[in-house]
Amino acid sequence: MGCFTFVKVVMVVFNLLICLAGICMATAGIWVTVNEDSFMEVLPPFTDEYLSHVNVGIFSITIGAVMMLLGMLGCCGAQKESKCLLIMFFSIILIICIAEAAAAIVSLAYSSYTEIILKAWATPGLKEQYGKDQILTDLWNSTMTTLQCCGFSNYTDFSESFYYKQNGARYPPTCCVGPELFRCDEDNANFSSVVGCFKQIVKVTRRNVDIVGGIAAGVTAIELAAMGVSMYLYCYLDKKAD
């Protein structure tokens, strides 16, 4: 009986934390939705075209609502000793785990297509909008300066671009070594061999793969523990009913 009480308390506390986290996320989502201008000031610049595809506020509210529902199910199920609520909690966690596993498998299976897909999105923007759209230009300049890279693949992404034509067949300064001393033309850019930003992003990601893997393992462990605790309580109550 002591073990059951302890597990029950752990279940309640754990789900209260989930519920609290959901409330915080939903509150942040509401703030973003109501006061979007203030929120955008703390983010890197993006064009309206890109933002139209992503509604951060609605996404945060949705995830927060799901977390609150999940937390209340687990908390009420343990507190009221309801087998129905506990099995619902277990089922939702199981579905989330399956979805995460499926997403991981798909990501691994299609990882070779990632560069192709991103290049198809990024290259037209560099060709047509870099140097014309100030927001996109500032974003790319910040990225290239921080990562010490040029374009998506390399300097050729800027060949015959709007920027290239408007600046006398020159490339952005980050594409060349010593641009303050030598003209950043095709010969200099080719000689400098500055790597593309995609390669730099992959390099940085690989450096942090242990952190990402640790976080993923921690989340999975928490989900499995929650499933185990809820099933233990369910089985105990089922035996108790018999």
- Percentage beta strand: under 5%
What sequence of helices (H) and strands (E) makes up the elements?
HHHHHHHHHHH
What's the tally of helices? 11
Q: Kindly state the percentage of residues in helix.
A: over 70%
Number of strands: 0
Number of domains: 2
Mean pLDDT metric = 79
Distance between the termini: 16 Å
List unreliable stretches of 5+ residues. 38-54
| Helical/strand content category | mainly alpha
> Overall 3D geometry?
elongated
Radius of gyration: 25 Å
Largest sheet: none
Give an account of the 3D structure.
This protein is about 75% helix and about 0% strand. It has about 240 residues and is mainly alpha-helical. It folds into two domains: about 1-110 and about 215-240, no CATH class; about 130-200, Cd81 Antigen, Extracellular Domain, Chain: A (Orthogonal Bundle), CATH 1.10.1450. It is elongated, with a radius of gyration of 25 Å. The two termini are about 15 Å apart. The model is unreliable at about 40-55 (pLDDT under 50).
Structural features:
about 240 residues, mainly alpha, Cd81 Antigen, Extracellular Domain, Chain: A, 2 domains, 11 helices, about 0% strand, elongated
Helix and strand topology:
Blueprint: H1 2-34, H2 36-40, H3 48-51, H4 56-79, H5 83-109, H6 114-128, H7 134-147, H8 162-166, H9 186-192, H10 197-207, H11 209-241
